Request: fold
Amino acid sequence: MTDLFDMGSVGPFVWGAYGATFVGLAGLAVISLRANAQAAKEVERMRPKRRRNKAEEEN
Amino acid sequence: MHRFANPAQFNRLADRILPWAKFVLAASLLYGLYLAFLGSPPDRQQGESVRIMYVHVPAAWMAMFCYMVVAGASFTEIVWRHPLALLAGKAAAPIGATFTALALITGALWGKPTWGTYWQWDGRMTSVLVLFFLYLGYMAIWRSMDEEDKAGRAASILALVGVINIPIIKFSVEWWNTLHQPASVLRLDGPTIDSSMLWPLLLMALAFKAYFVIVFLYRMKLEINRRKLTVLRMSQVNRR
Reply:
């Protein structure tokens, strides 16, 4: 078992690698999920409008 | 295969897979990190820096796996004109680019304490850098044209040409003199790595694979929604 906070001179390299991995992967996941949620909201916002327009056209 | 060409059917399938993938990600990541930091010994020669292997190697595997997904989707699009194949390639490319960048960054951070250098123009590192540029090129082509289908077709051709780089990455350590050691896990005669290090490595690889499935499915949903938006906007313009 290792002491997480005492890795000697290689500590910054190990934590740097894990930190970069976390930031990279979490960042991409957040960007992807937010973009999808925004696009889904936009689709929902436009759909009723289309139905409204259709109803107006029929009248 | 064309069964899932229907976006609604694809979304239903994705919604069924996502909770399982999230569970696999959480379980394998937590246990994998526990083993990587606390349950595995330091290496006799490398000491504690060997722990970088548990993120570097799975990231490098995923970099190649994602490229095969992009290339497979490109092939499917060109040969069978599957409507979702184009979107699958487009959805997988940023994930692959991220894993490739992470493999390069974590490799540099592992290289400095192990070899005394962040970077060396050896076969493995150079071919992975080429893979990163292939991803960037693929994504740049997608953005370069207004007509999405044309852009997708051009990007698909680049992706298929770039497949040649995958065996070069895999066998570079055998073909050329390199700082990297030969393969120690994916070998015909079985892994040569001790099980105390193999298990955390495999668990982290499983976590990265589950991450890919989750983000890929969300990016596919995103691309489907973008397509829907384009159609909705076009229909509004046509009505005016």
